[in-house]
Amino acid sequence: RKSKITASRKLLLKSLMLAKAKEEWDQEIVDKQAEKERYLSERITPLHTSGLSLSQLQDLCRELHQKVEIVDEERYDIEAKCNHNTREIKDLKIKVLDLRGKFKRPPLRRVRVSADAMLRALLGSKHKVSMDLRANLKSVKKEDTEKERPVEVGDWRKNVEAMSGMEGRKKMFDAAKSPTGQ
């Protein structure tokens, strides 16, 4: 299906949309900053500490401390409500998944763990000896395997009649068995 808009027109529209979005984003930031300053100027009155006696300063500090305690209690209550709501949302999501019958499986990553790390994880601090599993494996040299099996190139037509029948198969079996049995 062919698009009715050319690529250059698409690019132009995309750039215009991005420019408009950037302007609105900048305006939103400025509006938020102005709203914040307006709110703070309403809520916070400037402190006049000049010309106050020691007892008046102490009273002012007690008053400010009480206000801080009230705000801290409100913050704690709101935080507790928020945590309760997030737990409730999580439980409801699980119930919805149960009702659907489909479970979301998390993507699993393949983790490579060495034998030492696995033993350390299982045994904890008891594991002191490093275990090399490859040390116990039998080593095979290529040169030895090539020497053991000499390849004989011969005429296949030779002894065809001798190898035919059951006696011939037995001879082939015995011949194949003898080099590896040594």
Automatic annotation (TrEMBL):
Record keyword Acetylation present: yes
A GO CC term assigned to this protein in UniProt: troponin complex
Family membership: Belongs to the troponin I family.
Alphabetical list of Gene3D superfamilies matching this protein: 1.20.5.350, 6.10.250.180
PANTHER family linked: TROPONIN I (PTHR13738), TROPONIN I, SLOW SKELETAL MUSCLE (PTHR13738:SF9)
InterPro entries assigned to the protein according to its UniProt record, in alphabetical order: Troponin, Troponin_I, Troponin_sf
Keywords for the protein's UniProt record, in alphabetical order: Acetylation, Actin-binding, Coiled coil, Muscle protein
Coiled-coil parts of chain: 22-74
Stated name of the protein: Troponin I, fast skeletal muscle
